[in-house]
Amino acid sequence: MMLRSTLRRVARSVARRLPWLRAVSGRFGLGRALAPAGSHEILMLDGDIKFELDLSVPIFRFMYFNYDAANQPEPTLIGALMNRTRVFVDVGALIGEIGLIGAKYAARAYLFEPNPRSFARLQRNLALNPSLAVRITARPIAIAESAGMRTLFAPEASPGISSFHAMAKQVDSNEVQTETLDSAIPAADVVGFLKIDVEGAELDVLAGAERVITHDRPWVHIELVENNQKAFGRTCDDIVAWMDARGFDGFEINGDRRMPRLSPVAARSRGPADIANVLFAPRERLAELDRWRA
Asked: Which SS3 state, helix, strand or coil, does residue 149 take?
């Protein structure tokens, strides 16, 4: 077991320096022999946050070997923009790594993850960070345009693409509770930063968050993928237009932890499968982004 773990760490170091290995091994193939069922690794994020990856799940194995979570620009942006008197909200929290970062810099954090397997992993990561967990409210529900029940399609191989539309061929389905964000967040808690990653249902979340968006004026981080929006009969431009109508400008996030870069979202054409992480900023606060804007 110890030998396998050591070999995994060596393979991870090599893979992050030689990206072409992904094409040789297949997207999820690298390290498969080193990660049998029950294999877990704990990584560090933002200096002192622990998060565990279940390497028997292909997408988490890919993240471990090919993705440098510690060098992403989002922790820097969250740390600089988050106000400690406000709350952080993560809709589509997956295993909780971004929510933990938000809790570090906020008064409190609310994490919502309806996929039962992902929620169980989220709880394991909260247990690894007890000083942050006491400031986090985590709920296994979906945030949508109205309260009720909806069917969630969740592929075990790629839990990150759980959605109200089946985004993969082999999926499990579960009936999950939905609430609006405006009802799930107490009015007394002013939202400072809102992250939404719900695989095409982003406009549903926003439709139920009018109070939060218009009253609290938070920074809003949304993952834009054209194919995901198409599954719901929408486009990424629909989200940009929705936010624009409420006084928010969008900036695509690039760069790294040391130097995030923000460029206007309209300045780059998107392919159907391209992933763009976009920060929507209230226009009255654009000056706070000057150090990072291209």
From this structure: strand
List, for residues 263-280, the tens digit of each pLDDT value. 999 755 667 768 899 999
Residues 6+ apart with CB under 8 A from 188: none
For the record, the structure tokens of 6 come out as: 């050591």
How far is the C-alpha of 99 from the C-alpha of 123, rounded, in Å? Answer: 12
* Side chain identity at residue 241, one-letter code: A
Handedness of CA 29, 35, 40, 43 (dihedral sign): negative
What is the structure's pLDDT at 60? Answer: 87
In three-state secondary structure terms, 126 is helix
| Domains of the chain, CATH where assigned | 2-66 (no CATH), 72-289 (3.40.50.150)
Residue 189 CA to residue 86 CA, distance in Å, equals: 7
Average pLDDT, the chain: 88
Give Cβ neighbours of residue 1 (< 8 Å, ≥ 6 apart).
none
Non-local CB neighbours of 94 within 8 Å, separated by 6+ positions: 113, 115, 118, 121, 122, 159, 160, 197
Q: 269: which residues sit within 8 A by CB, 6+ positions away? A: none
Return d(Cα 109, Cα 132) in angstroms, integer: 9
Beta bridge partners of 167: none
d(CA 90, CA 191) in angstroms, rounded, equals 11
Task: Please report where in the chains the tokens 């870069």 appear, as a residue.
Answer: 261
Mean pLDDT, to the nearest integer, of 211-240? 95
Q: Tell me if 43 sits within 8 A of 54, measured CB to CB.
A: no
Q: At 19, phi and psi to the nearest 5?
A: -60, -25
Residue corresponding to tokens 């049998």: 36
Q: What is the pLDDT of residues 28-41, one digit of tens each?
A: 454 566 666 678 88
pLDDT digits 0-9 by tens, 152-183: 988 777 777 788 887 766 678 889 999 999 99
Q: Does residue 204 sit in helix, strand or coil?
A: helix
